[in-house]
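Anyone else keep sequences and structure tokens together like this?

Example one:
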Amino acid sequence: MSVLVDGDLVKCVGRILACGGVLGLVSPYLSDFKYWGDLRGSNRDKKFLTELLLSATLENDGRVLLITDPESLEREYSRDLLQEIIRHKWCYWIYLFTVPSLHAKLLFRNDEAVVGSANFTYSAFARNIELGFHVTGGPDLTRLKAFLNSLVAQGTPENEAALELKTRLAAAGLWRQESLFDIIRLTAYAHYLLRTTRIHCIWHSLEEPPPLTAFRGFLNSLESDYEDRGLPLRQRYSPITDGTDAHAEYYKEELSISVRKIEDVQALFDQLLRGEIDEPFEYRNYLREYENSLTPPPMKHIRLTAEEEMRIVAMLLEDRIKDYTSGESGDL
């Protein structure tokens, strides 16, 4: 555990938000705010919190558990931010819950957390004198996860995504306070496997195997993939053809490995559904590692400067946001 003050607190919070993945964000007061300092090499006039929450869910199948006080829904400076989350379809993996009398402030990721005095508001990070603690591993992190789980379990769903999450997991018998965050992480990883395996099939003109189709149906019973709300995968990813099938066996073996990973995840879900695991768990401890023994195709190396890399990342993120917000009312 380390103490964070002034700029160190801001940078740590910004880094965790930018890393994405599955996040828990607890704050009784919320507001959007601009980029500050040199966190991402920019002082552009942008909605910092909104963009990071969005990018956390669109990239790598992340999830955000956003927990606030019910009064935030009515406060002038937080109402617009929360209404965007409630109204826009691209926020389908931002789960908004409210808990009365909430006063805690917490940013949680599976392997680290920041807890302290700062709300997630512009004033807190740009003007106020705040103090926080960076927690990494150990029993303190476990207790923080349990605290986050208790807030989600007792919270009131305030957007469609949160209501659907609670309804579907409860119907499957997986709405358990002791392991909610871990189950959501496992579901996010399962969607990642599903999406990347389907992209692999599209790229290399391979037929989707039956286990992949069955797995998609199973995941949709727990949490919708909402593919109809963005561009279908086949519109986004086109087959890769180089005029030769010299590496066809390698790509088939990669697909076989993906299917084995999916079967391992399915087996873990089956254990959870049977009640054989009813406590916090680390899903990676239940999964096996696989390695392709065939020779991979040669890699093409592209050398870019740090500035060029950041520009490409910014362009890709903007394109992704445009795809997911097309046809929606309001601007990001």
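And example two:
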Amino acid sequence: MQRRFRSAAKYYLSGRPSYSSLLIRRVVELCALNSTHKMLDLGSGPGQLAMAFAPLVQEVTALDPEPEMLEIGRKNASSDHFKIKFVQGSSYDLGPQFGRFQAATIGRAFHWMERAPTLHLLDAIIEPDGAVVLFNDSHPEVPENSWHGPYEKVIEHYSEDDIERQRLRSPDWLKNEAILLASPFHQMERISIIERRLTAVERFMDRALSLSITSRERLGAKADDLASEIRELMAKFALEGVVTEVVESTALIARRNSPL
């Protein structure tokens, strides 16, 4: 299988919107996480979520199949002395050898997994009062996000023949909520934080190249055309090289039973 994220890894942290720090704190509060707890960040990429939670818990295990992602995560984490173990592996590797966790986070990666079997494996290693937390981000339809529609059209143009994108848009594709409802983690609570951010034009180019569907690995020479097209587009919405975007960071907290 093509290593979709090998070339995307170096653009991930600079391109992808960070999750709101306020959202992280709210998840910590709602899941009653503290410095005695261990967490799993599944499909961790370069450790965006792992690094956000590490100062708030005892230890985070960041599990990802892509070595390039893990290497970037190790370099960033070591500079800040975070308590993170970066481990190469995927959801198929989950088992008792990892120990037990109070929570498992999954950010923008659940759709790459065999979701129902993954939840079954997580059920065996997450504490009885623990949770699975799915993170995502989106751009609300507000005037400051007027750039988002044209941006998505460019991404669509360069990825319209991608099989994975077509699979996720199929009418047969079940939403994550449906999968969770049929799992042990069927009690759900969704929270979100909406923030205005100022983002340099170059970061939107990085964002496009951080996507598996428009990575350099997949597009080859066309990746430079994509970057040029994104730069030209976003310059129209920029003021002194900076674009205003409104980002909604979301966490879907799934538990076995409703909290008391």
